[in-house]
Amino acid sequence: QLQASGGGLVQAGASLRLSCAASGRPFGNSAVSWFRQAPEKEREFVGAIRWPGGNTYYVESVKGRFTISRDNARNTVYLQMNSLKPEDTAVYYCASTSTRFALSGMWAYERSHIYEAWGQGTLVTVSS
């Protein structure tokens, strides 16, 4: 079970930190990704944090603005979002997978079918 939280309404340029907490099964051996779905659009991959190693991989549109981190002791993964733009408005979902990819293959985390668990989503609205 994954629980995403931290969404809200902010102005453009603001920051938000989303959390994804796991219950029932530790995150410790799973890669965790964030996806988002804007109104009337397809769900899109945002970024992933690999296990082991904690390496991260992001879609181009959020590079330099978003950062994923994990706290295995708290069984929580975070998505720090800075310099938010109106086009970041979406429902954000976290997902976990035990599938491992090499550093050179982290693009594979973009494939949604590999994930075994999904959170319920948290809404982020960025006003202009």
Brief characterization of the structure:
With about 130 residues, this protein is an all-beta fold. It has strands at about 1-5, 10, 15-20, 30-35, 45-50, 55-60, 65-70, 75-80, 90-95, 115-120, 120-125. The strands form two sheets. Strands 2, 4, 5, 6, 9, 10 and 11 form a seven-stranded mixed β-sheet that branches. It has a four-stranded antiparallel β-sheet with strand order 1-3-8-7, with no helix packed on it.
Characterization of this structure:
With 128 residues, this protein is mainly beta. It has no helices and eleven strands. The protein has strands at 2-5, 8-11, 16-22, 31-37, 44-49, 56-58, 66-71, 76-81, 90-97, 117-118, 122-127. Strands 2, 4, 5, 6, 9, 10 and 11 form a seven-stranded mixed beta sheet that branches. Strands 1-3-8-7 form a four-stranded antiparallel beta sheet, with no helix packed on it. A hairpin with a 6-residue loop joins strand 5 and strand 6 (56-58). The mean pLDDT is 94.
Describe the global form: globular
Provide the low-confidence segments as ranges: none
Number of strands: 11
Estimate what percentage of residues fall within beta strands. Answer: over 45%
- Class by alpha and beta content: mainly beta
The secondary-structure element order is EEEEEEEEEEE
Note the total helix count.
0
Q: Rg to the nearest angstrom? A: 14 Å
The separation of the N and C termini measures 34 Å
Helix content: under 10%
Mean pLDDT: 94
Largest sheet: 7 strands, mixed
Which key terms come to mind for this protein?
single chain; 128 residues; mainly beta; four-stranded antiparallel β-sheet
